[in-house]
Amino acid sequence: MTIHRRNFLKQGGLAAAGILTLRIPALAATQKPYQGVLQPTHNIPADKSIDAAWIKSLYERGETTVYRKSANELKFIGMPAGGLHAGTVYLGGDGRLWLWQVYNDPREGIDPKTVLWNDGKQEVKVRNRDGACYVEPAIAANKRVLDQGFALKIESGGQEWTKELKEDDWQEVTFEATYPVAVVRFKHNALPVEVEMFAGGVFVPLDADDSALPATVFDIRIKNISGKDVKVTLAGWLENGARKVSAKDGEGERRNQVVRGDGFITVQGSFAAADGSSNRPDDGYTAITLAGETGFANTNAQPWPVTSAYFSTHSEAPATGAPSGILNGGIATETKSLAPQASTSSRFLLSWHFNHPLEKLHGKLKDTEGGFFYAARFKDAAAVGSYLARHLDRLWGATLRWRDTWYNKSTLPHWFLERTFLNIGTLATANTYRFASGRFWSWEGVNACEGTCTHVWQYAQAMGRIFPSLERDTRQRTDLGIAMQPDGGIIFRAEFEGRPAIDGQAGTILRIWREHCMSADNKFLTQNWPAIRKATQFMLAQDKNGDGLTDTPMENTLDAIWEGEIAWIAGLCIAAARAAEKLAEDAGDKAFAKICREYADKGGRNMSQLFNGEYFIHRPNAAHGRSKLGSYNTCHIDQVYGQSWAFQAGLGRLWNKEETLSALRALWKYNFTMDVGPYIKTHTGGRPYAVAGEGGMVMNTNPKNEEKAYGDNVTWQLGYFHECMSGFEHQVASHMMAEGMTDEAMVLTRVIHDRHHAARRNPFNEIECSDHYARAMASYGTFITACGFDYHGPKGEIRFAPAIEQPVFSAPFTAAEGWGTYSQENQSGGSRTCELELGYGSLRLKTFKTGSAAAWKKVTVQLNGKTLKATLRQADGTSTVELADAVRVLEGQKLQIQFS
Fold first, then answer.
1. 755: pLDDT strictly greater than 60
2. What is the model's pTM?
3. What is the rounded CA–CA span in Å between residue 425 and residue 448?
4. What is the CA radius of gyration of the chain?
5. One Pfam family name from the record (predicted)?
6. What is the C-alpha separation between 11 and 13, in angstroms, rounded?
């Protein structure tokens, strides 16, 4: 199906809002043909002309982003609202679920389609992996696969109202975009009540198992805002979704039945096949559960639309229905009386169970044979609902506590917290799987580019910090196991490839260091050290001339094999060598640590050879010159990515600081624009991940207007150079933040945020090669550098040196065994108070580090009021507090550190 691009997408963006005045030069008249094509000149303005007041506003705490019915901002919203790796179930802008990509659909993307887009010269077909859902975002009303919802009966002063919790029935509906739990509010001037719906999946950082429940929680709170008593009854329903896609009349029947337990009631839907089979992708179960109170079930909920009669119709007898019909299971609460200003709440759980991993993965991916992880824990959807109902106070309580910790206890801007975190929702989509074996596995984007690709996933910083056990297992089981070749090369798509990618190899070593640091002890490192050493040796061996700059032609994330010495690849390998040095030290392998240190030192010195006086480049292979595609003397977005990674992992400075800053400034000058329209209109061939009127950082530009700038053989991959891919942009933003270019980092992150405003498209879906692209989880890295966070679990070390200066700074953190809030306050006289408050689990601590003030002479450390012995030392702009004995800070406790 071909759909034309909507006109409204031509509007949006900051420029269209009148905030900016851009001076964009026209194309030079002296263009020259290159391979028969008119060569476009570089046309990104050096002067960004950004309003200084607007930049200042980016640092303000502000308010949570709220999308509104009255502003027509709800139709594209699709927040992943289920558990990790349990398919894609979207929470819509009015609180109803949609999409339901839980049926193991092999089609690419969340809304498989092809659209037409004018690339500046002609209309071109855009597939899902090319940005179809960016150009034409999916609309909730068109993708409500299952009938689902809630209705409220209200009685007061002799009047009665029945309203569904949906956009059409209320004057105003608002959506508070705080992943993993959104708040949807319903208001109507003619009604005596207001409704708040807290909805999302169970999401508890560090608890990867219980965060993977195939279920959505609806915590619905009703308040009497009138001066009279009010009676309310709440009901929810869910269509039986078994064999929803494939069943035909005569093949069997859908069945609903009631399951009651201690403190909960469930209606589960299933399908009874006439031939007894249950092996289709959509064979399984759906269920709705009311937890924590008594209620009335109805296995065949009618009538529709909902009227007051619905609330008095109850039948717990098993019900059946033909495949061509709709069989709804519903549950209503008891009627509750509310005095003026009083509130009540009910918690409904919607769960699903479809244990049929994609057939197209069978054979190559052995783990599919055992089914999904959640199915190994639970026999059906009712069992999921039962488990969640029995543990709801603990699991939903921790989920809400995390939401409060992330959004409410921080002093960072709300919009910044939203954009840097929400991409982890990718883990709760059909982009990722976890099998019964425990193995984590992923595409790059939904159903596109298989194999948990190393050169993509190495950008994604979020999962390693929020669910480190999944990353550790993937390093050990897949990268150092299934994908490891005898020579140490790591096949970059494991079972789905046959060769390593050099950037993926280096990135995997860097992730191994991160995973070690996010561990409670050295067990992960010691178990895997021989394989880690071998993987590092393979990487070091790709420097054929021994100058510390990788020069072996190998695959990279831009899907080509480049010849020569390439700054971004060489830099990544230098960073990985430094990480391997640290790993070797912790493993007690001093000899190998020395080898890695010498490589990193030499490479760091020689990186200057790839600096052209303004930015880092790609030095051609002497034998082949520029015969093949490459970035050469152009300005490439990843040119100092290795240093960016080093700041993520606490590895320090790798090469010349001033040259690195110059490179970042060049990216800002030559690649960043507040309106990509003029650039993509003249530099065609790229995919529309940012369109006219929107800001972004272009992947690769030719600021010197060189002829044949990208080599003699311009292959299809050249199209990548003209795009804005958010994962790459996020890694640059995180690097800029770490280097003190905070304004640039904030602006770059904000334009990505604005590109995904709900008036334009789904705020929760950053697209590259298909939907919910894994690389976009690089956004979490900008949060890491904003906090100046570093952590080494086995050593009990933690560091905070905020890049965003505030008199009082507060932000969340995660460690190996717990998470909580870090805060610091600068006081008169130059003293500072720092505090670590544990919201979950525990934190083992021996060493605390922060940015120093030379005048500090004394430190006092207290844990819950008890003074601990500690020493203070200062060096290289860092104050280090060393405790005499390691302590364990427990959930609910506070550790305070006073510098004076």
1. yes
2. 0.95
3. 17
4. 28
5. DUF608
6. 7
Owner of token pair 């269209």: 16
Average pLDDT, the chain: 94
CATH 1.10.10 for the 148-398 domain, yes or no: no
Q: What is the DSSP letter of 435?
A: B
Residue 730 main-chain phi, psi, to 5 deg: -65, -40
Please report the beta strands in 527-674, taking only residues with DSSP state E, as ranges in sequence order: 565-566, 618-619, 635-636, 672-673
CB atoms within 10 A of CB 646: 26
In this prediction, residues 385-405 reach a mean pLDDT of 98
- Give the end-to-end CA distance of the chain in Å, rounded to a whole number: 68
Query: Rounded distance, CA 163 to CA 235, Å?
Result: 11
CATH 1.50.10.10-classified regions of the chain: 412-787
**Fold annotation for 790-899:** Immunoglobulin-like (2.60.40)
Look up tokens 């590092």; give the residue.
Answer: 536
Q: What is the mean pLDDT of residues 526-549?
A: 98
Q: Which comes out higher in pLDDT, residue 853 or 439? A: 439
- Structural element, H or E, at residue 260: strand 252-261
170 against 14, higher pLDDT? 170
The pLDDT value recorded for residue 33 is 52
Residue of higher predicted confidence among 11 and 225: 225
Length of the chain: 900
Q: What SS3 class is residue 690? A: coil
Give the Cα separation of 834 and 91 in Å (integer): 38
Q: What type of residue sits at position 163?
A: K
Cβ-contact 354, 104 below 8 angstroms: yes
The CATH classification number of 412-787 equals 1.50.10.10
Cα dihedral 185/189/191/192 (nearest 10): 90
- Mean pLDDT, to the nearest integer, of 232-255? 97
| Residue 187 CB neighbours (<10 A) | 15
Residue 608's pLDDT is what?
98
Residue 737 half-sphere exposure toward CB, CA atoms < 13 A = 33
Helix, strand, coil distribution of the chain in percent, nearest 5: 30, 30, 40
Q: How far is CA 84 from CA 89, 180, 209, 361, 428, in A?
A: 11, 11, 9, 19, 4
Contact 783, 421 (CB under 8 A): yes
DSSP 55-90: HHHTTS-----EEEGGGT--TT--EE-S-TTS-EEE
| Residue-level pLDDT at 306 | 87
Q: What are the φ/ψ torsions at residue 583 (nearest 5 degrees)?
A: -65, -40
The pLDDT confidence band at residue 38, using thresholds 50, 70 and 90, is low
Residues of the chain with CATH 2.70.98: 148-398
In the predicted structure, residue 9 carries a pLDDT above the cut 90? no
Q: Looking at residue 6, what DSSP letter applies?
A: P
